[in-house]
Amino acid sequence: MTRVAMLSVHTCPLAALGGKETGGMNVYVREVSRELGRLGFDVDVFTRSQDPAIPEVVPLGPGARVIHVAAGPPRPLPRPAVAAHLPAFADGVEAFRLREGLDYGLIHSHYWLSGLAGLTLAARWDVPLVHMFHTLGAVKNMVARGSDDSEPEERLAAETRIAAGADRLVAATPVDRAALAWHVQADPARVRVVPCGVDVELFRPRDGEAARARLGIAAERVLLFVGRLTPIKGLETLFRALAVLKRDGLAATRVRLLVVGGVKGDPTDTARLRRLAADLGVAAWVDFRGPQPQDVLPDYYAAADVCVMPSRYETFGMVALEAMACGTPVIASRAGSLAVTVQDGATGLLVTEGDVAALARAVAGLLTDDRRRAVLGAHAVEWSRRFAWPCVTRAVAELYAEVVPALRGAAAASRCHSLL
Fold first, then answer.
1. How far from 417 is each of 38, 113, 197, 240, 318, CA to CA, in Å?
2. Mapping DSSP to helix (H, G, I), strand (E, B) and coil, where does residue 190 land?
3. Of the N and C termini of the chain, which has fewer Cβ atoms inside 10 Å?
4. Which tens digit of pLDDT belongs to each residue from 2-21?
5. Smallest Cα–Cα separation from 111: which of 170, 53, 52, 63?
6. Domains in the chain, ordered, with CATH?
């Protein structure tokens, strides 16, 4: 009964980060699955096959593996198009189970597309379903700036259905829990708060000057943005804040904003943002670095004086946690769960979302105050250690044991020396 079916339909946990369909959820699924495997669970992560050259089964770590399921054309598809292939995906998972002679004690699904497949499989296998939305369509629509930025009614209806049908829902923060109750009428008794995590062995303080040398950065002050280059991440607000800084006193300073994210080899992905930077007169300050492997990201965090997250909304803000684990203070929007992930005045600074002047003041204040940056960075490291992946996964295992009592032994076997 320790075998878990982990569903991540639209994006593979092995995919490179930074693209339009990859981000914190990929890291969450990958790291939790690996840690569950170390605890003695058998974890099969099912994802839709998007490349016929990739083997059907790929090891993820002891006790964990990724299974690529044929469902629709084996290429990347827009998320709405993936929905049409969910019945085929569920059938593919069932075919794999029968072929391998396996039984799963529990399903853990991620994002609304996986949740729909999870409802189908949970009913077919008569097992509990644990679901994590990672982001809600209704919340995204609240901060959308136009119809192109909005989520369809199909998604909104699906999320309400999943919230009603899942045995447990995972919220990343109390803010996320409140959003579940308000937007999809989730029963608070079935919602558990389990934060996202960080690899504190990979993301740790290191020498900033050495990191700048390795990355080829020559600047007096370095700002960092990490994330998808989508409107909800608020990069336009940061560009406008840079224009204010250039006009109000930092024009003579060699400032660089490193933008890590986007689709590798696709110049059209940054064309709109490059035009905006040029129009604002800050193009010389902005360095688009594209997506980066996760083992390179610590150098970027170490090289930065400040990591900036001007998002319109974040369900958790894993980038903030990675930056803080590296000792880099974060300036973030007081939007969604960032208000919980970043401790204002202790591990970083929070500003009102979309307030260009406030963001510019916060950036200028930290860039010109070495001592304050050092204090915030030291506190950030201590704060981040509470969110080590073994701690997070222990909480996940304890949640599993609530719905499958036979899993209590595996949950109790986990060890964590930090407090969530």
1. 16, 35, 14, 43, 21
2. helix
3. C
4. 899 999 999 999 876 555 55
5. 170
6. 3-197+388-412 (3.40.50.2000), 208-386 (3.40.50.2000)
